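Much of our argument rests on the idea that a fold can be written as discrete symbols. Part of our work consisted of pairing the sequence of a single chain with a tokenised description of its backbone. The amino acid sequence and the backbone structure tokens for this protein are reproduced below.
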Amino acid sequence: MLATASTLSLSYAAPAAPAGASLRHARPAAAPPLMETKADLEALAKDLNPAVGFWDPLALSDYSFWGTSQEATIGFLREAEIKHGRIAMAGFVGYIVHSNDIRWTFDKVAASVPTGLPAPAVWDAIPDIAKWQIILFVGVMESWRENKVVLEAEGQKHYMSGGKPGYFPSFDLLPHPVPFPLFDPFGISKRATEEKKAKGRLAEINNGPPPIGRLAMIGLFGFLSEATVPGSVPFLKGVVPAYTGEVMAPFTQNIFTAPTAL
């Protein structure tokens, strides 16, 4: 499944942008949109992992989600895997950071959480308002990435309309300056050759080098598995502290199942 998701993985509407608005991180006009097909996925799968090749046990690449097209669905799945791989990378590092009681000295919320807790218990211990702040921030970032006006201002298309999966627009349309774009904050890709960019896109969703993307998803679940069921991941036995809470709590107790619980 991970193979497909990653195979599927490299490559709303708001008011119109003001005429003549200048972009602080202006980008050249994008090439005409290119909708990837299943044949493209099969070729990409071999580049990612020749030993496994194209593996799509649920036949997701054959579907047409929400009455769109097979190509639009492939764009959605490719974006989804890149996004989940990036989140897993952050989660993998975050798990290690919190398991080792590494805190910013100026972060009073983090300082209020007792030390010596397993990483999932750190999340349980932070105030609900802090959790909602994180969730709200993620929602804002998601809305910005999906906004057609923002994308078109940079010569890009939505990933379900032939746009580049994994692309995150700059914040140039915001009324206040933002120091750097999230997609390429240090401008590294601007100096890279097309060949190097292509290799980087493959490395991000595969397992490296360095180990990222798919491997980060496996690694994060390995941490959670060993913490919840000690000994389930022999390599991590005695390394990852046990967690006695409910890792699936967001799905078993939330504002939909227990509105008064939060």
